[in-house]
């Protein structure tokens, strides 16, 4: 290798504003109506759910202690004593504890798993303190205070929890009134205005002592003020605000507004202490409340001895329901936040739930009906109305309590009131990180904060490790932070239609990019765009009078003409096109084009004699050129280069991709929002015509609907397709990704994993390094799919082994993947193992399905059907091992057509089984469930609903794809090119050795040709004679013509000889003169040949340019280090081919053996199902229809169904995988719907949010807001939209550019030290 510059800093380590969416008007109206419906429904559910939870918690608390209830409601509705045992009392204590502590138990489990993996950070002590105070206060009120009060007073007292916030507000007013520099008159005026506020605050504060002063039969004189004060202090969200930034409460301020994420250590400590505090308070309450008969055994009985007939079990079921309700309410709140919607302030549970609860209690207490009392009696609970109804001064007491309620509702409204921001401001939405079940309304508040100031970069305070003596070093803190998109397409021998499609997409993107930069609206996503097309094998030899020269081939010529046609570029008066420049490069040549709207498009013409060809090496070219040369070789500081890398993206597309600008914008929005995403891919739609394309339309649909959506939700997408994916530059530049991607295959498995599916391998490298890959369903792209049977089979022959190889590689290295990638869990690894395992068993499962379907359809013997179906499949296996690919494909095509008819029999047999055994039979249930899930998935994708119609073609081709295609891909594992096995023989320099069967076929065809030629030989000879005779006649006619002009044959002959002699003399003179003038030097000749391609008829209209020396040096070094054409001897190539055959034999025989054993086992179990089957009755009285073997008639029978245990196990596992994927699909559709709602919100064409910003400096504010996204402590907020800030609280060693610069500096120092040692010696 040669010495290279900064561009080669990448390493491989050993292990040790959505804008203007293309939505139709009806879709926009439907989305707006759906959004309004969802908003109203969610608001209603939040208010009702929180109020119901509050009533249930207060019911459990007020029933802990027995009370004398002299009010009319109790006398009317509770005449019979409610049965209440000590176990029921234990259940009430346990229920309250469960409601409060269950979220903390979950958080302990989650955070402990993170701590086990080594994710540890300093504990936020102040946060832990206030949360523990809150838990202690709520437990004190629930276990000590509320049991001595009735429901109405409990509701009024619960409204007083913002007590500290009210006192803080009063003190702030007092501070303002006593501020120095204010006249005495103004101070007195402010004090008078503050008097009503102070009076209300004092009345509010009376909630801590009122009942003690009134001399009620109230024993919690100390517990009430202590519990109320602790709960009020613990409700820190009510009194922490933006004024607490940079103060002692700065951590609480950051947590409240989502500026800082609560780390795992803090979560674990907080949740564990809250559990301990709640349990301890409950134990003290049991002792202090004088439950003499209540023992530990009662708690064990209530918790572990469930009986649905007992009161205590019903109470615990109610507690479990409340836990689920709280999770649902928090989910709804997060959902609204993700929609950028917020509950209406005056209907938020914080504002109105105390009023609703108080109103419901008073209504029930004064209602003549006893429905509520009868329902509560089943739980062993009583509705407590007013134990002090006969006391005096009741009116005055309630008047004061009503003031509490009014102030509490007002204070709650102050906490949740909506703030309005300018459209150019970037907002963080956050939610309380803890859930308090005893007062759930406190956990349903969304706080918003505007990013309004710049926070220093994590590297600005670090020492720059770059070369300080570098005179070209630039440190620019104001470097452009706008996003840069490099659109990189790889092309080969595409057709005109495919080229037109990708060029049309590029031109649309060019127009969109230009219009955005022209408008420069603050709320629009703006980006810089540059296009690159890498043309593989774009040169060919052409014979010229001066010799053989290299010129662009016909495919590039067609591309150039098509480009001129679509851009409508015309030649100027000088006969050139100023917008087209040709440049010679070390890898071939380059065409630089300025598109109509101003975007530069670079077309790189690769010469396979100078540089490696194929897609992977084209990707290596643009990665190192754009990220290595453009970024790493730039003279900017590390901080600026890191900023460039974080805001630079590569859009990878194919030479036939079709997409709209909106598709790219959706990917950019996602990458801008979440910094941990290394790649985002869109929804790929296959286009073309024919049956094979119909099959692929349904296949692509279910793959995206289910598999990709499930991967996105439960882990990471495993494959980012190269036809439309957006990569983050800083992710590609990280260790073990870009550099490792340049690795050439050394082992047989490498040829399968690296070169057969380069997109999948690059995705695997990203995942193992810790980057997330996400799927954006709304980002649509189209690509041409194989239309022919042979082309389709060959494509999948490449894809299938590579996909399996990369998945197995990820599974085998799962520990590293889990440790590096937070999105990959052990459960996700288990899910992928199940998917890959059952995909390998596909041939056996489909084979047995075919056998038993034919048995049911034709009434044949299962052994006969097994033989009839086994023979063609075994014969195909032999063909795959012994013949060439064309024979294999021809046979597979014929068998696919035959088995399509067999699948009709399968359909009939399946329908018959469903009718006879009813839907509840396991197999019938699985089939019906699968059909319903597929149909529901199509309904959830209305724009793609038509794809469900192609399910018929997919069904008919199941044997073809799951049996013959699987076998073809498996047994042709050793074929590592994009063609047939004959290419391998050609590459090894040997003649392909034909198999015996193929030799027999060839000999037969040769014999037939000989017989045919025997009968046609005479005709050929006569034709040859006629040709010779015609030639002689033409010569005679020529001589006669000359004789007419006065010449004889001899003179004509002499004339001909004279002409030849003069020609020879002329050539000799030219030769002599050239010798005298000296031959041109070899260098000049090479230079002339080098520029010859620029003078061709189609390219001579282009300007000629010259590559810069720095870039020329870069390309030379890159080719020398990584991209030299691979040259190997025939012996080495034969060794590779033999290794691939050996690998194929090992894998193929193993999988074939497993499939054969599985198929045989299922068939044998079915043969002996009377003994080995599981007898199952779905429900009592179940009957099904069965054929009587004696009479041949169908009869109704009550016999149990006989189920094959092995087949049933397979069905259960497949159904489990399908259910997991269905859940993932539903969750992903919700996420997609949120994105659609955001697009509708930002529409301008339909009058939504079209008002311009009132701020004069919109662009400056937005720039500063975006810069905050990369602050040190801006990590993941708590909103459901998944905001993920830069990695704060971590060492700068996680910075990619910093790591690369540090490693390079260490290498430089090591070399310097070594040279010093050598100099001393």
UniProtKB/TrEMBL annotation:
Residues 1047-1056 have a biased composition (Basic and acidic residues). GO terms for biological process: chitin biosynthetic process. It is a multi-pass membrane protein. GO terms for molecular function: chitin synthase activity. The chain crosses the membrane at residues 36-60, 123-145, 191-212, 218-236, 271-292, 312-329, 826-853, 865-882, 894-914, 920-941, 948-971, 1147-1165, 1206-1227. It is found in: Cell membrane. SUPFAM superfamilies: Nucleotide-diphospho-sugar transferases. It comes from the Eukaryota. Residues 1064-1074 have a biased composition (Polar residues). Its main location: membrane. Residues 1047-1079 are annotated as: Disordered. CDD domains: Chitin_synth_C. Keywords: Cell membrane, Coiled coil, Glycoprotein, Glycosyltransferase, Membrane, Transferase, Transmembrane, Transmembrane helix. Pfam families: Chitin_synth_2 (PF03142), ChitinSynthase_IV_N (PF23000). Its EC number is 2.4.1.16. It catalyses: [(1->4)-N-acetyl-beta-D-glucosaminyl](n) + UDP-N-acetyl-alpha-D-glucosamine = [(1->4)-N-acetyl-beta-D-glucosaminyl](n+1) + UDP + H(+). Residues 24-412 form the Chitin synthase chs-1/2 N-terminal putative transporter domain. One of its GO terms (cellular component) is plasma membrane. Belongs to the chitin synthase family. Class IV subfamily. This is chitin synthase.
